Structures are given as structure tokens and as C-alpha cells.
Amino acid sequence: MPKVFGFAGFSGVGKTTLIEQLLPILIGKGVRVSVIKHAHHDFDIDRPGKDSYRHREAGAYEVLITANKRWVLMHELRDEAEPTLEEQLTRLSPCDLVIVEGFKRADIPKIEIWREANGKPMLYPQDPNIVAVACDAEIECRGLPVLPLNDPPTIAQFILEHFLND
């Protein structure tokens, strides 16, 4: 199994932007990285009128779209329960690190992304899996490292060191 590292925080704090900035840094250090993003509610990457959409609407359990640059497998849950993070990890191709966005309550090491301007409470006091907080303000987090949110190289180095010491 690859190393798994999560990012947790309320909507609008910049999780996706930070991950987007971290990916080229980690990949540049020779780390093969995959990402699992937990979406909320009824998301859909497909569009009405497309062949794949029509196949799904007609009842297909899975639709695989393939081309010379990428492929995607869409699996309809129908009445099945949402798969756990652990189940989804087994579906990924081999890699060194899986970055997980969302899955706030997952039992994996996480960095909390927090912005004072968002007005939301911090997650780390209730989540023992949060190993650091990245934020845009100077704060104290009861012994947890506080990382500068706008310094992706420092955050990437923290992630790499976390796994070297694991």
C-alpha cells in the first residue's frame, strides 16, 4: 500500500489550491502521487447528451471511456453504500503517495487547512489524526506544527519528512 496523507478543512479554505501547488513539488522530487477527492452530494463528471451519460442513464453498472491520453471508469452505486476510503485506495494503480482531499474523519495523517477569515472552528482539537495545521495567521495549536499556508515547498517537505520518520 502507498503512503496516504490527507488534507482536511471546511469548504473554501484552499485545500484544492494547496494540493495543486504541492503536486509538481512532490513529483519533482521523484514521488509518484495519486489523489482521491471526496465530493459531496450528487456530483457528476458526465454531461447529458454524451454517449457515456446515455449508457449510464440506460442502466449500465459501469462505463469505461478510453482515449489515447486518458481513461476513466464511472461506477454507478445505484442502491449500494458509498465505498470507504480504504476500499477506494485498493482501486488505484501503484504509487508512492496518495493525497486525500476530504474524508475529514478518516483515520489517516492529515494537515488541517485553516483560515481565520473563514470563521469556522478548527478541527484538530477533535481529530487526533491531524499532525499539523497550515494557516494564513500566526496561531498556537497545542504542540502541533503550524505551517505557512502560502509556502507549498515547506508543506511538501513536512509531508516527506513525516513519511521518512514513519
For the largest beta sheet, what order do the strands appear in spatially? Answer: 2-5-1-6-7-8
Supply the helix-strand structural class: alpha/beta
Estimate the helix proportion, in percent: 10-25%
Biggest sheet features = 6 strands, parallel
Strand content: 15-25%
**What do we call the CATH topology?**
Rossmann fold
**How many structural domains can be distinguished in the coordinates?**
1
Q: Which spans of ≥5 residues are poorly predicted at pLDDT below 50?
A: none
Number of helices: 4
User: CATH architecture, please?
Assistant: 3-Layer(aba) Sandwich
Tell me the name of the CATH homologous superfamily.
Answer: P-loop containing nucleotide triphosphate hydrolases
Under CATH at level 1, the class stands as: Alpha Beta
Domain Molybdopterin-guanine dinucleotide biosynthesis protein B (MobB): 4-136
GO molecular function: GTP binding
Protein name: Molybdopterin-guanine dinucleotide biosynthesis protein B
InterPro entries: MGD_biosynthesis_adapter, MobB_dom, P-loop_NTPase
Describe the model.
InterPro entries: MGD_biosynthesis_adapter, MobB_dom, P-loop_NTPase. GO terms for molecular function: GTP binding. This is Molybdopterin-guanine dinucleotide biosynthesis protein B. It holds the Pfam family MobB. The chain is α/β, with parallel strands linked by helices. It has one domain: Rossmann fold (3-Layer(aba) Sandwich). Helix content is 23%, strand content 24%. The radius of gyration is 18 Å and the shape is globular. The two termini are 14 Å apart.
How do the helices and strands line up, and which of them pair or pack?
Blueprint lengths: L2 E6 L6 H14 L4 E5 L13 H7 L4 E5 L4 E5 L9 H5 L7 E5 L8 E5 L15 E6 L10 E3 L3 H13 L2
Parallel strand pairs: 1-5, 1-6, 2-5, 6-7, 7-8
Antiparallel strand pairs: 3-4
